[in-house]
Amino acid sequence: MSSLRLHFLSVVGTAVVFIFTLWVNQEIFTHSEFVRGVNWIYLPAGIRLLATLLLGGDGALGLLLASWLVNFFYFFPNDALRSFVGGIIATVAPYAVYRLAQEIYGLRASLSNLTAKRLLILVLAYSIASPLLHHVWFFLRGDTQDIFNRFLAMFVGDLLGTLIIIYTMKLLLALLPKRSVAPLRDGT
């Protein structure tokens, strides 16, 4: 498969998975919406972190396109600025955590040096970074009504959603058949 085709499929695949996860979240956790776009459980947050950890820039680009699509046409169709900036913020937060992990932990593309403890730290860092960046933007726009409670709801939603996605993936990977390694012959 050509490199360009692989990048394209990574970007499009990320966007499709993100939008599908958003739909699932809206169907299952519709009762957990605090305000429009802020849920107490937000599964797409987990896809954001997972996509950037696995796919780097391709994942981030797919997230940006998907975020713009859902912001402009679903969440905030009458607020172009909020849709545009919100899509960027939603992408910058997980990508910044990914880049930080590369710098601090020397994160490899295979994620082979991503321990359980490091992963939990990244989940927590992302769950703080995303609502923090969003709420700095809200503050700069003068949208300060109930800002602490919105921050708390977004933090909890991102944290729970990310933990659910990450540990669901971990469980699914554990259920895959193990590849056995043939025993070495000692020549006898």
Automatic annotation (TrEMBL):
The topology of this chain with respect to the membrane is: Multi-pass membrane protein
Query: MASE1 domain spans which residues?
Result: 10-170
Q: Enumerate the subcellular locations listed in this protein's record, separating them with semicolons.
A: Cell membrane
One Pfam family for this entry, by name? MASE1
Keywords from the named record: Cell membrane, Membrane, Transmembrane, Transmembrane helix
Annotated Gene Ontology cellular component terms: plasma membrane
- Chief subcellular site? membrane
Membrane-crossing residues?
6-24, 45-74, 80-98, 119-140, 152-176
By what name is this protein known?
MASE1 domain-containing protein
Organism of origin is Paraburkholderia polaris
